[in-house]
Amino acid sequence: MNKSNNQLIDFINEALSKEETAQLEQAIQQDADLSKDLNALRDIKAQVEALSYIEPPAQMDADFYKMLNEQHVAKPPKTTVMYPRWMKVAAVVALLAMGVIIGLQLNHRSSQMNALQASVMETKAEMASLMAKGSTSGRIAAVNVSLNAPKADEEMIDILINLLQNDQSTNVRLNAMEALQEIGKGEKIKQAFIQALKTENKAIVQIGLIHALVNLEAKNALPLFEKIIEDENHLDRVKDEARLGRIKML
Fold it and tell me: Distance between CA 48 and CA 141 in Å, rounded?
């Protein structure tokens, strides 16, 4: 009997109906491979629950309760919560780790998995391990490891984009930007650089992003270059890079 992994996950989480649970239990008893898959998923759940927890800043609790008090007094009609960069990065680490563990546990039995897929999976596993440490050096090492993969898949690209746009470390953002430049020239990466440039506040990263967009011939970045040139808050050297980039792409 062919049961999907989603059904097995629902079974482990006790999310199936009584009838579905009874049917699946009977199938597990009759199918040795299905039983192995179930045990593998249970191991996955245990491993994910054992992943290192990234501690939030100590000030976060005080800020949270202060925010609640302010909301209680002011009662604004609408509140937009902006999550700090460390929370976004932590969420991606958790998703990457889950994907890596499930992939390694459930795909290793597949005879159709070729050497390329195996190498990419191993690279993502190493990235997850390094990023789970929660340190700047670990995230930089994870970015560098991504360049060892024979081919970057969409998940790896998304991780690097997230680091570029959200990591609190300037060095991590720079390394992620350089890695993305080496990976490819697709529209997704161009758009990621444009979005990053809109919010970046460090001149060294801003200049790097402008240079990268010029190299990628991203002409849709020209309006943003114009905005930077006219913005008094940007440093002269950033404006100069934007002017030079505009000339090169016109």
Answer: 21
- The whole-angstrom separation of Cα 51 and Cα 239 is 44
The pTM assigned to this predicted structure is 0.57
Choice between 243 and 112, residue whose per-residue pLDDT is larger: 243
Instruction: Give the domain ranges of the chain.
Output: 187-250
Helix axes 187-199, 170-183, angle to 10 degrees: 160
- In this prediction, residues 236-250 reach a mean pLDDT of 94
Contact 234, 228 (CB under 8 A): yes
> Is the Cα torsion angle 53, 54, 56, 57 positive or negative in sign?
positive
How sure is the predictor about 75, in pLDDT bands with cuts at 50, 70 and 90?
very low
Q: Using DSSP, state whether 18 is helix, strand or coil.
A: helix
Give the confidence band of 119 by pLDDT, cuts at 50, 70, 90: confident
Calpha distance 23→25 (Å, rounded): 6
Structure tokens at 202: 């460090």
Can you give the length of the chain in residues? 250
Distant-in-sequence, close-in-space partners of 183: CB < 8 Å, separation ≥ 6: 146, 147, 152, 156, 157, 160, 189
CB neighbour class for 160 (10 Å; exposed up to 12, middle 13-18, buried from 19): buried
R_g of the chain computed on alpha carbons: 23
Contact 164, 180 (CB under 8 A): yes
Q: In this predicted model, which residue has the larger pLDDT, 13 or 91?
A: 13
Beta strands in 39-169 (DSSP E): none
Residue pair 31/1 in contact by the 8 Å Cβ criterion: yes
CA dist., res. 148 & res. 132, Å (int): 19
pLDDT, residue 43, reads: 67
